[in-house]
Design a protein that fits this description.
2 copies of one chain form a homodimer.
Chain A: E1 9-13, H1 19-27, E2 32-38, H2 43-59, E3 64-66, H3 70-79, E4 82-88, H4 100-106, E5 109-113, H5 136-148, E6 151-153, H6 159-168, E7 174-178, H7 192-200, E8 204-207, H8 222-236, E9 241-243, H9 253-261, H10 293-302, H11 307-325
Parallel strand pairs in A: 1-2, 2-4, 3-4, 4-5, 5-6, 7-8, 8-9
């Protein structure tokens, strides 16, 4: 029993999963992780990825459990395990078939991005020149995701689509991994307008630790990061923020190539990198992996957050969001 | 609340589903039905069939509910609804992929036949000339079905494969819809050897009302049918028998053609029929559909079954079997 420890929830990772990483989660006291199980995969390929997780749940049941509800997360906390919550960075697993939203939810998916950098069937990605907003199919998908309890994630979507998703969705949405553009300008970071609308609608922002989203990139300072969190809390509310590190551990460069190029690009797309800087960015000194969440909590305390406020940002805000988001609509 | 009515469970139907039929189930007091959602469909096609059911559960939630556990069946009984239990008449939905067993179970499948008339990747069907028994893949599939709680159904399988499945399976199996060959000789009916082994292993037989499986076909008499049930109870035990009508309502002849020919046959296969008798057999006078289960119960009483014995055959035996069969292995 480790239930006296704080609840730590990371609302995005996409590591090269292994027992070693699951052990690091335990060592770091990580209660729940939203794991990416698809970038460009279609339905059948996503099922294959779920099958792999089903085997990991069997083989490493002493460390990880499926996370499909806030209750699963609480039980994981009591048992000193990590709840694994499935999410998609793109809508490709539902293909052109609205009925797959419920099927994928039945199989444990709890987050789906409506678009990943590019235009999708549902919405526009943040790398497109034009953003015509949520599509006809997208409006139906939002209603269906609302109905079954799959969270709309707009981390990689463009601004108009994001504002429309916030408006159209009858339930609060999430931006699981991004930072405010006021702190660091990047296509992936979000404007004050988006963050305010997100906070006012009861949605959640997860702060990213991916160096391309950070002021100073891999040299970003912890105190600067925590100051940004404090300023974002002023903008969108202390209850609407959490962590979504975008942590990658142990992935080969072929994965970042897959993320950026999928099957759609004949020319190499370098995403947030460049031809001379095509691979993964270097790690932060104060956050290398799942053992280091304590550093963030310490940084927040040093910035003046109270202990209950730190607990909210490190996990309890996400837990409350899961509570009202993962089940069927009332 | 209709919980004073008996629990009636039909362990196989494959009707042309509609609100009208769901209303007939309610009128007939049918507590649960194992419905066929696949004959030859591959994984993606089976998902499509599940999607259709998901919509029916939404549209007709006042009449039907998903049946994934004995608890679901009991709740349906209390609420005066019918629990719908998904099953496959073939192993085609799992394709060549052992991981799909768990995925399909997560989506609600609770019965899977290892073969449908023909040789499959797992076992031999009852129309093949040779039966080499359970295959290498079949042995692994049986273990996996045991692990997750998907019932092995050998209704359309050949004798050696069936005996081996009973032996290899660590959990009791089912023959959801067939009759004893001692009463009516048919490729689909089962020998004393199979029925005895089934009963001794704690497995279940569901008595079929499909005319091709009946003595006298569509002219079969109710008293003869009930006498056959009494003789089968003597052979395999009163706790190991139930109903599995194989009821078809409102299906066009194209469905019986699909069942018999799938995509595998260039020549037309007539299955249990013939070229001159290619369509559905005519109905029985005393069992035309879901309103008529009371006739069977009356017939059993007339044959000398006590009231508790009738309740067991009409539903409680299946309910107890569901209780120990649908969850993960201990």
């Amino acid at each position: 029993m480790t239930s006296d420890k704080p609840i730590i929830i990371d609302c995005l990772q996409y590591c090269n999963w292994s027992r070693e990483i699951f052990e690091e989660m335990k060592a770091g006291g990580v209660t729940a992780v939203h794991v990416t199980i698809c970038y460009h995969e279609q339905f059948r390929e996503t099922i294959q990825n779920m099958e792999r997780w089903n085997r990991w749940f069997q083989e490493h049941g002493d460390l990880i459990v499926p996370g499909r509800s806030a209750g699963d997360v609480r039980r994981a906390h009591e048992d000193g395990k990590t709840a694994i919550i499935f999410g998609f960075q793109n809508c490709s697993p539902m293909e052109d078939d609205i009925g797959l939203v419920e099927i994928l939810h039945q199989l444990g998916a709890r987050f789906m991005q409506l678009s990943y950098n590019n235009q999708s069937l549902l919405a526009t990605g943040c790398y497109e020149a034009e953003d015509p907003g949520i599509t006809r199919f997208g409006k139906q998908a939002i209603r269906e995701m609302n109905r079954v309890g799959m969270v709309i994630d707009m981390s990689h979507s463009a601004q108009r689509s994001t504002l429309e998703a916030i408006d159209l969705s009858e339930r609060p949405i999430a931006i699981t991994h991004a930072n405010p553009a006021f702190w660091h300008t990047a296509l992936r970071n979000k404007s004050d307008e988006v963050l305010k609308a997100l906070g006012e609608s009861g949605g959640m922002l997860g702060f990213s630790l991916y160096p391309f989203h950070l002021n100073g990139h891999s040299n970003c300072r912890l105190d600067d990061f925590c100051d940004m969190i404090a300023r974002t809390a002023d903008l969108m509310g202390l209850d609407n923020i959490g962590i979504g590190t975008d942590l990658v551990q142990g992935q080969p460069d072929s994965i970042v190539e897959w993320m950026r190029n999928g099957r759609w690009s004949l020319e190499t797309d370098y995403g947030e990198g460049s031809k001379d800087n095509a691979g993964w960015p270097g790690p932060l000194a104060w956050f290398e992996g799942n053992r280091d969440f304590g550093n963030i909590a310490e940084g927040l305390k040093a910035r003046g957050f109270t202990e209950p406020e730190v607990d909210n940002v490190m996990g309890l805000n996400w837990l409350r969001f899961f509570e009202t988001s993962f089940g069927p609509q009332d």
